[in-house]
Amino acid sequence: MQNIDEGYIKFGCHHKKVEKLPVTVPEELKKTRDRMHQLGLIGHYDELNVGYGNISIKIPEGILISATQTGKTEHINDNDFALVTNYDIDKNMVWCLGKKRASSETMTHAALYEADETIQAIIHIHNKKLWQKYLHKLPTTNPAVPYGTPEMAYEMKRLYQESSDVKQYNTIIMGGHEEGIISFGQSLKEAQESINKIYNA
User: Fold this and answer.
1) What pLDDT band is residue 9 in, cutting at 50, 70 and 90?
2) Phi, psi torsion values for 146, nearest 5 degrees
3) By C-alpha distance, which of 120, 116, 111 is closest to 58?
4) Which residues sit opposite 122 in a β-bridge?
5) CB under 8 Å to 175, separation ≥6 — which residues?
6) Does 129 map to a domain?
7) 1 in a structural domain
8) What's 22's domain CATH number?
9) Domain interval for residue 157
10) Which residues share a beta bridge with 12?
11) What is the rounded distance in angstroms from the CA atom of residue 115 to the CA atom of residue 164?
12) In angstroms, rounded to a whole number, what is the distance separating the alpha carbons of residues 12 and 24?
């Protein structure tokens, strides 16, 4: 777990701080995130003082994603989410609003939503044993590509388009992001089922 800087914003972020989001945060989104937290798949590295893992859904207004540095929070609330209203992968820029800034993995989520319009939910978890078990056995990103960068966003799109296994498993192992796994689906339930398959295997 060397050089993990999860939770730090890597992109340019136009953040508009608002006391209340202009959209409703679904209860299912909060419950699913808390379930992942209970399992230790989303959380906080105390020794490094950084959070890990995040969750998002696509809505008409943009991308609703857990905010940066919320890994310590046991029971997440509306203020722990940010609404991403726009992004530019080429310029490495994100526009968001909320009490807190959007997750450092925002660009990765955006790339997957862009790769397939049927994807409506994404869960990014951390688990060393699962990561080691499925590295290069499930679709895996190039180990040379670091997380939270435009390169990772493009790598996600490339892998999604080139690997039929991605659509079969709805899961991508992040080769250059130790412990990092991305699962997705047409609903939060489907995304969580994809995690359950590898977690319970």
Assistant:
1) very low
2) -80, 155
3) 120
4) 56, 184
5) 135, 136, 140, 141, 142, 143, 145
6) yes
7) no
8) 3.40.225.10
9) 12-199
10) 93
11) 13
12) 26
Domain membership flag for residue 5: no
pLDDT digits (tens, 9 = 90+) for 113-153: 999 999 999 999 999 999 999 999 999 999 998 877 888 89
Which residue has tokens 């499930």?
138
Number of structural domains (the chain) is 1
Exposed, middle or buried: residue 91 (CB in 10 Å: 0-12, 13-18, 19+)? exposed
| C-alpha–C-alpha distance, residues 56 and 65, integer Å | 4
Spatial CB neighbours of 138, under 8 Å, sequence gap ≥ 6: 165, 169, 171, 172, 173, 198
Question: Mean of the per-residue pLDDT values for the chain?
Answer: 91
